[in-house]
Amino acid sequence: MKSSFPKQFMAKGLALFGVWLVLSGRYDLFHLIIGFIVACGVAWLNTGYSHAAFQQFPWVRSVLYVPWLFLRIVQSSLHLTKLILTRSLPIHPKLISYRSHLQHQGAIVLLANSVTLTPGTITVELNGNHLLVHAIDEVAAEDLTSGRMERKIAGVFQQEAKR
Amino acid sequence: MVILAIAFILVGLFFLVVAAIGTLRLPDVFTRSHAVSLTDSLGAFCVLFGLSLYQGFGINMLKILVVLGLLFLLNPVIAHATLRAAYRVGVKPKAEEDA
Predict the structure, then answer these.
(1) pLDDT tens-digit profile of A143-159?
(2) Contact flag B26-A112 (C-beta cutoff 8 Å)
(3) CA–CA dist B34, A5 (Å, integer)
(4) Which residues on A lie below 8 Å from B59 (Cβ)?
């Protein structure tokens, strides 16, 4: 279901205007009008270009994914801190080539971004559903190689990810 | 509130220092970028969250939280772009390929 032009324009305009309201912090008529015009202009320029990754993206359910990801980020940060502060620097960097089974473009983007956001693993290349991930050691890469992160994202996307 | 804010900022500074040490100690671009990603995930998060607590509820807290959100969206993109550029140009990581 592709969202129509006016709907998309409204959503983007409102979001941008919200950011303006928060960042400007002034609520006199002049600033409100300027912000409204700029938000509309930017929204108008950017409407119509809708990447496949954003179609049918489950925004609401992906919010539930954030706390889990945050917990993983904290855990792997502590692991990385321990690695860096150890005198002998016990790192085993390696490139992992990983083929994802996720169908939805947005799901793969979310996976690649989550991998990069987690300290200790960074997505180097993303080609279709093929990820090249650089990991600092086995432990940091475990979430990805065990498929745990992918299963979590498949849960967020439910029907699209099955197969 | 203020004590909590200071605690958060100190924890954040600790992680920033660790990230700086890591950037100096690790051997190549790829591993160093891991240390840098430690900066934005926990370091900047704790510092900014501590600052927003220090400000108390209000417009400034909202502003800092917006910046925090943008940071979390933008940093993986930057890290990925840097490493992809390095990889494509032909910088070889000190690592073994693994299937």
Answers:
(1) 888 888 888 888 887 75
(2) no
(3) 40
(4) 22, 25
Predicted confidence (pLDDT) per residue in B9-46, tens digit: 999 999 999 989 988 888 888 888 888 888 877 888 89
B32 interfaces chain A, CB cutoff of 8 Å: no
Q: Which of A137, A139, A126, A135 is nearest to A99 (CA)?
A: A126
ipTM of the complex: 0.81
Q: Residues 59..88 of B with a Cβ closer than 8 Å to A: which?
A: 59-60, 62-63, 66, 72, 75-77, 79-80, 83-84, 87
The domain segmentation of chain B, as residue ranges, is: 2-89
Contact A50/B at CB under 8 A: no
Taking CA A29 as the corner, what is the angle to CA A27 and CA A34, rounded to the nearest 5 degrees? 95
Residue spans of beta strands (DSSP E) within chain A: 94-99, 121-127, 130-135
CB distance A117 to A143 below 8 Å: no
